Amino acid sequence: MAPSWRSGSSSSFTSSALSAAPSHPQHAVSPVDSTFTPTSAAISALTAEKLFERTPNEVTVYLGPWEIVGANPRRLLWQCSYAGEVLEHFLPSDNPSELFPHTLHAQHRRFGDPREMELYLSFQEPHRIRYTTREGTVHDEYIEVKYEFTTIEGSMQLQSDLRNRDLIDWFDVDVVWSDTHRRTDSYGSVRGLGTIQRIKLWRDRYSTFHYLTFYANHRRLWKEYLLDDFDRDLRQRDDRHKRVQLGARGNRRGSASESSSGRGGGGGGSGRGQSRERRFSTSIFSRSSRHGTGNSGASAQSGLDIRYLGIQFSRNPSVQTGSDVILSVNAGSSSVKVSVYTAEQGQSPTPIAEAQVSGLTAPPAILKYKRGDETVVKDRKVEDQVNGQQDAAFAVILDTLIKDDGLPDIQHKTDVGIICHRIVHGGDYTKPQLISAETYHHLEALNDLAPLHNANSLGIVRHCIEDFPSQSTRNVACFDSQFHATIPKHIRTYPINQDVARKNKLRKYGFHGISYSFITRATAEFLGKKQDELNIIALHLGSGASAAAIKGGKSWDTSMGLTPLAGLPGATRSGSVDPSLVFHYASDVGKLSPASTKDLHISRAEEILNKQAGWKALAGTTDFRVITKSLSSSQGSRDNNNNDDDDEDGDNETARRHRLTFDLVVDRICGFVGAYFVSLHGRVDALVFAGGIGERSDALREAVVERVGCLGFALDDGDGKGGGGQDPTAVVWDVGKRGVEPRVLVCQTDEQFEMARTCAEDEECW
Ligand SMILES: Nc1ncnc2c1ncn2[C@@H]1O[C@H](COP(=O)(O)OP(=O)(O)O)[C@@H](O)[C@H]1O
Ligand SMILES: CC(=O)OP(=O)(O)O
Ligand SMILES: [Mg+2]
Prior knowledge:
Blueprint: H1 40-43, E1 47-51, E2 59-69, E3 75-80, E4 86-90, E5 120-122, E6 127-133, E7 136-143, E8 146-149, H2 152-163, E9 165-178, E10 194-204, E11 210-216, E12 221-226, E13 230-238, E14 243-248, H3 256-259, H4 273-277, E15 308-313, E16 323-331, E17 336-344, E18 350-358, E19 366-371, E20 374-381, H5 383-386, H6 390-403, E21 416-423, E22 433-435, H7 440-444, H8 454-467, E23 474-479, H9 489-492, H10 498-503, H11 513-527, E24 536-541, E25 545-551, E26 554-558, H12 581-585, H13 604-611, H14 614-619, H15 624-629, H16 635-639, H17 650-679, E27 686-690, H18 691-696, H19 698-707, E28 732-734, E29 743-747, H20 751-761
Parallel strand pairs: 16-21, 21-23, 24-27, 27-29
Antiparallel strand pairs: 1-2, 1-8, 2-3, 3-4, 4-6, 5-8, 6-7, 9-10, 9-15, 10-11, 11-12, 13-14, 14-15, 16-17, 17-18, 18-19, 19-20, 22-23, 24-25, 25-26, 28-29
Bound molecules: adenosine-5'-diphosphate (ADP), acetylphosphate and magnesium ion.
């Protein structure tokens, strides 16, 4: 049998096209082997078509060689696998260039080979299919036609035959826009002419002119442009954002010169003698070799209805590396901190801006924003917009970043490539996870285990998944619990029935791990030690506070447990108490709290211990500065604090409560330092203070170091600030007494940087 389908395929494919795009050298999508020449062997691949889809009579018809026959209607005639079977596909137009076989963009299958998208061919509108067997006509209806090819070459050949234009290359692009169809709307959402598109490059079999096609999905029509209609120079090319802009030559359609140019129906044909002289010679598109004499007929929908065409290339993780903007989001219990970085894969990110809303549990919430070294917003009250809510705080920050003209790296949401989110409880996850709408619910299941954090962080994640186009922005979850995966079994196990423990995943997880990871690396560097030889006791003291024993650079123990409630007291958390306390506290503590939601189930007891305890309960404030400020005035009452009969005035009473809180916090911290000192066999390189309080409160450091002085720790003789002050840009500084081991250090921990660094190094994020 002579495969008649070959009659239409006149040329061999020589694709020198888009693969050498200068605008995106590392990102070139070159799915077509430039040496590829179709042979009958390559095309003998079968394709399949489903009839009666989703009905009990559904049947898959295996199709062999094809032939395009006739006119009015032009038909694609398929031989089927059984003798006497024929499938006729009636083509909706006799004009080949009006046919637009449709394949997906690689984004629709992010991790597959982008070439594979060509295996699935469909059309945007129903076509008539007649299926005949020996018994007669089995099917004759308009259906959604979906071919599934076994080889990419087979699909390309069919597409070429249908269009009488050889499909020579394609790119996956995020958005195609023009002067009349902007890339984004006024909210920054990507609109464009077409989004998430596979642009295809065709060469007409007769004229050899080159065309590009894509589906303008916002207007639901196909666009076809003749490449010669665009300037040869690439205008406004923007390597960093992987954008090119092609300026149209001459006037737009509708102008006098153009309407007389002989383009039937405004088609994009190149029938003008003048255009035949031109060569499309930018290196982005292949040079047309002009053997032909005329236009093969243009699509009715084509034509230059624009002044320029802008194209933004996709960031397909399987084919691209490059630089990107990273937003690192740290939703703490009392604050939301967002840092902005530019980053290249595998390189340390470069910070360009940081913003935070603090005071979420101690209103009014305050916005601070710094771009580089410049303070753009100092202390703006944003309580009205935020109302104690983390996701509202994030929205305020995002708005601030986007509206800042001095931050050109983020003009629109689409400029953000990666958003890393600090997720406190990561269950058994031991590495960061890309989050999609589909995987989001895995994280939701952990909400109950970190009631002050996970639900809030996930609120922000949801906001980002919904608001940032998935084609431009990846969301990555970085877990606080991840660093503690190395805690040995005898330390992480609770002494309870192990079957129940396993079933319900009850064990010590530990948190602040992103911070401890940063602290470990920074301290090792500061001390000039190898990380795997570093032993430290680290204290992350913020609204949530914890201690960790780090042995050989890895987590050995930490004070938080199954949830962040265990261990040290925090702003609103009790820290460890006798577990029976809850039953004595009040009678209804086992009931669900009114604060419970559909997604978050929190009992009264959990709510009391997580949200109504800690300094808030003891001192009436969640701001530790307020507590340390009144210390000196409470000195007297500290000395008499057994004298209950004292008729103290209100101020003194408050000061005494602050003193009690401070002493209690110091006591609990020292308890962990002592325990970890023993646990590390006294081989400790340094005691490291970090977190909002650990970094900034001299009073707290002094009190702690004084109490643990018996273990050899001692502060600098001066004021405990490291010899009277420290370099403001320092990450780690020494506040210990000269010549004394172990050292006492302060580390300005940076959870946002740690997340951005992890993501920049992780191939999967790119
Ligand atoms: N100079 C200071 N002295 C004492 N406490 C401070 C100082 N500066 C900030 N803090 C406290 O640090 C805490 C916030 O720490 P941080 O680590 O930023 O919190 P979060 O838990 O929200 O991440 C607040 O309780 C704040 O009062
Ligand atoms: C785990 C935890 O308590 O985090 P934060 O200190 O940021 O609230
Ligand atoms: Mg924090």
